[in-house]
């Protein structure tokens, strides 16, 4: 069970977050899904835990979103949101699923990098810091930061090269919709 948790937790949290737009709520939903998965596995009813987890998290996220929107004071906004938002969510579930999987793999790849390289990539891509800002913050030469950044990107590309192919195919298919 711990291996399944480590494999899917991050991607499921991202998947749920993109639906409910609440970090803590998404984590709660995913944790509840794993508790229910554990019970299902004990009963011996589980065949495909990956699809079961995504379906359970999607349904729980949509339910949580609906409950969250019930407390909105403007009834008209709520009704309009459900009419348009539900259709968008149903159509975008596949996109969310793939984005969550890719994001989870990116984070796993990032954690495999050496610590200084991780830190440089996080500062550059997540905190939007420039190369000069990073070099002064870490007290490294600008060329060292550039080199570490480029090496980190290269290693991440090797780690997730197969995901780029999948994402490219998915984007190509969505072009026709």
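Sequence proposed for the structure above (177 residues):
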């Amino acid at each position: 069970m711990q291996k399944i948790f480590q494999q899917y937790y991050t991607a499921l949290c991202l998947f749920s977050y993109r639906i409910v737009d609440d970090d803590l709520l998404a984590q709660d939903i995913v944790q509840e899904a794993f508790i229910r998965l554990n019970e299902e596995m004990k009963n011996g009813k589980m065949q495909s835990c990956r699809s079961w987890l995504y379906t359970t998290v999607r349904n729980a996220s949509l339910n949580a979103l609906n409950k969250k929107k019930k407390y909105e004071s403007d009834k008209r906004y709520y009704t309009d949101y459900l009419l348009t938002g539900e259709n968008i969510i149903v159509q975008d579930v596949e996109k969310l699923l793939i984005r969550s999987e890719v994001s989870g793999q990116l984070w796993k790849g990032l954690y495999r990098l050496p610590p200084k390289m991780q830190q440089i990539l996080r500062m550059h891509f997540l905190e939007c810091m420039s190369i000069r800002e990073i070099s002064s913050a870490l007290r490294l030469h600008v060329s060292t930061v550039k080199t570490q950044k480029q090496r980190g990107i290269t290693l991440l590309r090797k780690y997730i090269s197969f995901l780029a192919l999948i994402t490219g195919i998915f984007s190509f298919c969505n072009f026709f919709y």
